[in-house]
Amino acid sequence: MRDDRGGVALGGWRPDFAALPLARALPLAVIGGVLLALSFPSPGWWFLAYPALACMLLAAMGQRARRAAWLGYVSGAAFWIPAISWAGRYLGPVPWLALALFEAAFFALGSVAIALGYRWVARVVHSTAGRVWGLPAVVAALWTGREWFSGSWPYGGFAWGRIGLSQSQGPFAHLAAYVGVLGLTFVVVYCTAVVLSLALVVPRLPGAAFRVPVRVATAGLLVAAVLAVPAWPTATHGTVRIESVQGNGPAGYFDGASPGEVLNAQVAATDVDAKGVDLVVWPEASAEFDPRQQPVIASALDSVVDAVGAPLVAGAITQTSSGVLHNTSFVWTADGWRSSYDKKRPVPFGEYVPDRWFFSKLAPSLVGLLQRDYTPGTKPNVLPVAGIRAGIAICFDIVDDGLTADMARGGAQVILAQTNNADFDGTDENLQQLEIARMRAIETGRSLVNISTVGASQVIDPSGRTIDRVPAYTATSMITDVPLGTSTTPATVASGAITLVLALGGLLTLLACAPWARRTGGRRRS
Length: 526
Prior knowledge:
Elements: H1 22-38, H2 49-60, H3 65-83, H4 93-124, H5 128-150, H6 176-201, H7 211-227, E1 236-246, H8 261-269, E2 279-281, E3 288-289, H9 295-308, E4 312-319, E5 325-333, E6 336-342, H10 356-362, H11 364-367, E7 382-385, E8 388-394, H12 401-409, E9 414-419, H13 429-444, E10 447-452, E11 458-460, E12 466-469, E13 476-485, H14 490-512, E14 519-520, E15 523-524
Parallel strand pairs: 1-2, 2-4, 3-4, 8-9, 9-10
Antiparallel strand pairs: 1-13, 4-5, 5-6, 7-8, 10-11, 11-12, 14-15
């Protein structure tokens, strides 16, 4: 027996979330992935995340597991291939497509969970309120759990492309201070799923003349309620004058720069005549090598510190006595090296090759290009400098939820996000990373200095607003009075717990509603 939407009616149960035929679901899956890619820079049309989600949820809704997996994989590929096209800038299409298609598998996994949610939970929840408000919460929790999992595994995961990260310019961005980036993902997915439920469930209610007004009014009230949440009252006390230097030197892995070229570019771009500077910040690896081992580098740093009259935070490749390599950020003063932080999130296949013995057999020519492996550091990512405490994020560190929380909990008053985007010249990678940094500023309630070797370099205040910037691919500096944060946001205290509750809650609810947990007349439902 079939219902009027083409779904199967079982024992009088009429599904509101019946599966679409493949001829309609497949185009929706592709369109959803493409729209989601467009919500990220560039062009960064954040509002497209909502129709993108609607398309992908509709495509997965009610499908059997195998078909849901394929539809999710198609959505993931349609998203990841254009979204991270920058990954092939120098190494060609193989690593780009390999990463995109691997990450698409997580979309497939999430699509299966969501499809089962629409089938299993809907069979248990019969009330209109439960289907309109409760079921979308399970769906949003499953999506959030999938993002957490793919951002954690393997090799530390790849947290790029989260829904919450697409909303840095959107009206819900301020919610990141309450619930974190993954919590923001939940809010966006939940709102979209509620609107879909209103479209699918409410039309079945009595009173046809009131169906459209009811749906529109309810959706409007939901959005208004979310927008009514005020921005977190971030407190600041005082400022620190920071000179952030974008040297635009040949800092790319394949630029073939001679030793000292990047360092000299940074020195030349530093305004040594600037007045009242409290701190100078250079990008990742801007000093090139360890100044404690290279007197020429130490001399160059001394000249900057002496001329400006302020300490310098710079980056370099350092090596321990046992030969272990680190990507290091350090504080250099008139008395030399004072403190340092070693990058805790080296990029897999970028800064080190995990399981090199295995991958060198699969792609020996590509793996062979990466001759050195950085080791994750263990030092705290908050350093005392210029009378303040600065949180340090070296490039990919800014994507890590735990490291972000560590900075805030470690008493950071400002975040220095040092990066080197030179290997992605002419791509969207630097813009995408900038928006991740913007979300971290909102999430932590801290001003953030995003300083790159080539761009995009900006200073962002705790509300996510850009207060200073310099043109990309230009040797210059910006001198900015940066507000110092003093308050603690709910996200820095509880975002990890919120994510855990959402992910486990969605999964446990799904399992509790599974057909093997219920029997009717001695027969198992499927």
